[in-house]
Amino acid sequence: MAASSESVCPYCGVGCGIRYDADRGSAVGWNGPVNTRGELCPKGAAAWDVVDHDERLTTPLVRVNGRLVEATWDEAFDRIEREFSRVAADHGPDSTFFFSSSNCTNEENYLLQKTARALGTNNVDNCARLCHASTVAAMGDRFGAGAITNSLSDLGEADVFLVTGANPAEQHPVIFRSYLLPALKSGTTMIHVDPRENQTTKAADIHLPVKPGFDIPLLNAMAAVVVEEGLVDEAFVAERTTGFETLREHLSGLDIDAEAERAGVDPDDLRAAASAYGEADRAAVFTGMGMSQHHCGTDNVQALINLPLLTGNVGKAGTGVNPLRGQNNVQGAGDVGALPNVLPGYRPVTDDDARAAVADVWGFEPPNHPGLTEVEATHRFGDEVRAAYVFGENPTVTEPNANRVREAFESLDFCVVHDVFPTETVEFADVVLPGSVWAEKSGTVTNTDRQVIRMNRNVAPPGDARADLDILREFAARVAGLDAPATPEGVFDELRRVTPIYAGMSYDGIGTGSQRWPFPEGATEGTAILHADAFESGLKTAPFRVVEHVDPADPVADDELVLVTGRVLQQFNSGALTRRSGVLMRMRGEDSLQIHPDDAAARGIDDGATVRVENDRGEVAVAAEVTPAVRRGTVFATFHYADPLVNRLTGDALDPTAKIPEYKHSAVRVTVEPEVAADD
Ligand SMILES: Nc1nc2c(c(=O)[nH]1)N[C@H]1C(S)=C(S)[C@@H](COP(=O)(O)OP(=O)(O)OC[C@H]3O[C@@H](n4cnc5c(=O)[nH]c(N)nc54)[C@H](O)[C@@H]3O)O[C@H]1N2
Ligand SMILES: Nc1nc2c(c(=O)[nH]1)N[C@H]1C(S)=C(S)[C@@H](COP(=O)(O)OP(=O)(O)OC[C@H]3O[C@@H](n4cnc5c(=O)[nH]c(N)nc54)[C@H](O)[C@@H]3O)O[C@H]1N2
Ligand code: SF4
Ligand SMILES: [Mo]
After folding, report:
1. 293 CA to centre of ligand 4 in angstroms
2. pTM
3. Ligand 1 site, residue 208, Cβ cutoff 6 A
4. 3-state DSSP assignment of residue 290
5. Does the pLDDT of residue 101 top 90, yes or no?
6. Is the Iron keyword given for this protein (predicted)?
7. First and final C-alpha spacing in the chain
8. Is the confidence at residue 455, as pLDDT, over 80?
9. What percent of the chain stands above pLDDT 70?
10. pLDDT tens sequence across 286-315
11. Residue 584 Cα to ligand 3 middle (Å)
């Protein structure tokens, strides 16, 4: 029996409220904390499609003689217990690795990271690593907190939006339509920095089609214009920053026009954008994957942060640095400690007091050395890392250099995949655990503007599938001897006690609304706008940083093009859910390669022709979409499909600080695919 209860969309970090509507037989919006009028984008509206889908995993599977066969839960867990114990005993706990899930609840992520730590390793990560890890690192360094500085509801007060490396019209549609568009209609100016024209560009006043990987010269040149034109907020700089003189010296040595040209943009347009940003009373920055997913992702965001600090655009309504987060709980997965270097609440594993504080609640102390990050771990599969638990992630499609990733998964001694569909990663599993989707479980998720929202169960999981938290409870008991609370509410109550930024919240208090972090013990509500009087670091000031351009990892030969990868509105990440949705059908153009007419003509490529895209790492065949929307020298494809598997082409380079991959810059050769002879 289905009951209609308030839940949260399983897709993006906007966190729209959805529930099952039995009359319509589909998901509908309720008036949630973010989608206050019940509005949804096409993905949210189609979210029921994956609940009663006939490809759902409905029974545990174990590999016997190379084939996955149906098993009982006991058989599956006996095998898991035996193999995890064996690997940990033979090679030490750091030979195990845990992929936690940004698509799953705070309670589930909390329990999985606690299990890893009880087993004796900090080897737990979630795909924030592939996403905004660099943003979080840079913002943490400067402001003392890596999260969005403002709240969605105050951002409309901005006079200028600087949107860089993000396409909110397609990737955060309800934020775009319900929070940004009304402001744009009443006069807010939007600057869009993106090598490609997309739906966001259509609503922009100034478009800077930056050359992929050249955001630092662009941002430094914008900062230099702000200084040159006397647009610096002197009072703010004096009171709230340090290091201005050093930055000013560096910027005054720059040739602004030359830096603009190096970044591939028109110097006049760049000056216009910088003046608009600098002259605004209130200017808000939105930043996305175009900035974060480079091997200089942290430096990109460091360069970006100089702008709000120069102009006093931090700590008040309509300003700040606002990363738009990825999945419905990528914010929360990090908040509750599913990261290898920090405990719940972002306290470093190396901090003795932090470990002692969690030990008071847990009854054991977590290890004191940071664990491996997600991609680093994959690179060590079969060697240092022998067993993995993959919860709600599809890394064989989504990690870079997919051919290598597949070999890595092959080389594991033991792999558990806990998912809801037979994904491409399930093909590498020794044991498969059938979990639950959004409508089948309860718990909390934390959206992009730090609001903790409750999901309530509408329907039971299909067949023998179980609620994710119940599966993780048994896993915790079997491999680490933990006795976790039986309900999401019980787990939330525990996680609150070790997560200072959540300490004042309560499950009941959230109800069908939300509570926002930071919400310390004793507070009556959370803080919407961070860094108002002092930064979250506890300091009154934030430092300026001098940032130099870093060349992309892949050198680009004369006959090569730069492949940028990204997203479209109707598909979500690895496509595990959306590719199975009847409503979000595969549409023309979604899996094609956007190529500029000049680059196409030089290669004899017609619109619609099948082209081969290749480099030393791999190759894919795709249809060409010849369009001037993408800049010359750059091609664009999505990574939503297992075929074409675009991540065969992306590389291994990682940001040295945040370890995020360079998904937004790969050198490729593009040629017309030779016709396959009809009689072959
Ligand atoms: N429809 C849909 N929505 C989603 C998702 C989805 O898969 N589909 N995924 C969710 C997730 S996990 C995330 S992380 C967010 C991501 O949301 P976005 O950050 O908006 O995602 P992307 O499309 O990957 O990248 C944004 C833009 O960066 C541009 N870009 C590429 N290279 C550069 C560069 O060097 N510099 C600059 N300035 N820009 C560049 C691309 O052209 C692209 O338009 O979306 C979330 N929402
Ligand atoms: N080339 C390229 N690659 C990229 C990116 C890019 O821009 N370009 N972006 C990167 C980014 S930002 C991200 S975040 C990653 C995303 O990478 P992934 O997290 O690997 O991708 P998803 O498709 O979100 O994977 C979600 C998995 O969880 C399962 N799932 C969904 N809901 C539930 C649930 O409630 N319970 C359980 N048990 N399972 C569930 C789905 O079936 C699916 O297998 O991809 C990265 N890869
Ligand atoms: S905007 Fe995001 S959270 Fe809202 S319905 Fe669309 S995918 Fe779901
Ligand atoms: Mo993401």
Report:
1. 10
2. 0.98
3. no
4. helix
5. yes
6. yes
7. 53
8. yes
9. 98
10. 999 999 999 999 999 999 999 999 999 999
11. 13
pLDDT in tens, 576-628: 999 999 878 655 557 899 999 999 999 999 999 999 999 999 999 999 999 99
How far is CA 406 from each of CA 66, 425, 428, 575, 647, rounded to the nearest angstrom?
16, 9, 8, 18, 11
pLDDT greater than 60 at residue 514: yes
Work out the pLDDT band at 677, boundaries 50, 70, 90.
very low
- What domains can you pick out in the chain, each with its CATH number? 1-102+372-519 (3.40.50.740), 133-323 (3.40.228.10), 561-672 (2.40.40.20)
For 88-129, the DSSP string reads HHHH-GGGEEEE--TTS-HHHHHHHHHHHHHHT---EE-GGG
Four-CA torsion 646, 647, 649, 655, nearest 10 degrees? 140
CA distances to 60, 61, 63, 305, 668 from 69, in Å? 8, 5, 6, 52, 40
Residues with CB under 5 Å of ion ligand 4 are 131, 326
* Distance from chain centroid for Cα 315: 24
580: left (phi over 0), alpha (psi -120 to 50) or beta: alpha
Report d(CA 453, CA 14) in Å as an integer.
Answer: 11
- Which ligand approaches the C-alpha of residue 288 most closely? 1
Instruction: Give the position, in ligand 2's atom list, of the atom nearest the Cα of 132.
Output: 12
State the distance from the centre of ligand 3 to the C-alpha of 582, rounded, in angstroms: 17
Number of neighbours of residue 503 by Cβ within 10 angstroms? 18
Phi/psi for 414 (5° steps) reads -155, 135
